[in-house]
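User: I'm preparing a small set of examples for a lab meeting where we compare how different chains pack in three dimensions. I only have the primary sequence for this one, and I'd like the structure in token form so I can line it up with the others. Please keep the answer compact; I'll paste it straight into my notes.
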Amino acid sequence: MLDTHTPLLYLPFWPALVARREPPWPAKFSLLEPMMTTNRRDFLTGAASMAGAAMTPPHEHGHSYDHEHQAVPSDPALRVKALESLLVEKGLVDRSALDTLIDAYETKIGPRNGARVVARAWSDPAYKQRLLTNADAAIAELGYGGMQGEHMVVLENTPKVHNLVVCTLCSCYPWPVLGLPPVWYKSAPYRSRAVIDPRGVLREFGLPLSDQVEVRVWDSTAEIRYLILPERPAGTEHLTEDELAALVTRDSMIGVTNVSSPAKADTK
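Assistant: Understood. Below is the structure token output for the 268-residue chain.
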């Protein structure tokens, strides 16, 4: 639950590497800043661009530009694109390197890793017990681990208890098993309301819970990251581990949704 020992200092690794891939935060939060509509590639490009810009000698920034792009567009996506083009032109950023980085986080260091962990726990009771007892070791059995996932705790959702993860300080998130955090995860509305009104937040994500279900909110920090083990949906007893993994979503491993049964998932 809420960690009362949240440190005053933290390390915001790659703060620009946050973007949204799934449908946006519910309509009630459409007032979020326009940057919330920027896609994953734009933010990843921006992160690499900023890194390249940091290596540029100071004297190259000491002059002003009189040509047209001096008026920076209001849309962050356009600004990122302009930065990328400029840095590629200067030889500070390699487009192929950006594509490799993006592919790694989208296809290798992403929610599909966490989905495999969940599917294995659903299929193998012994593995599930190891996962709940020593998450780091159990996750490492599947080959996952590393930066932002060194100290993991897995929390099991049950018919009587629903767990929800938030980072009230910044955007601490288990990268090795969930990839990049969605933009809404680090937004002020989510970070505050997940603590103040977690049931309301869950309703807005399409998950109303009865009063008989206890809701526990867990605060991720630089020292500890959480992964939710969702309830296994009914009607999945015949599915293989790969088929189960295909049902698991990123949001269900954060705790804002449940995993849908195969029939419901096919209609979405």
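A couple of notes for your slides: The two ends are 32 Å apart (CA to CA). Residues 2-25, 27-38, 51-70 have pLDDT under 50 and may be disordered.

User: Perfect, thanks.
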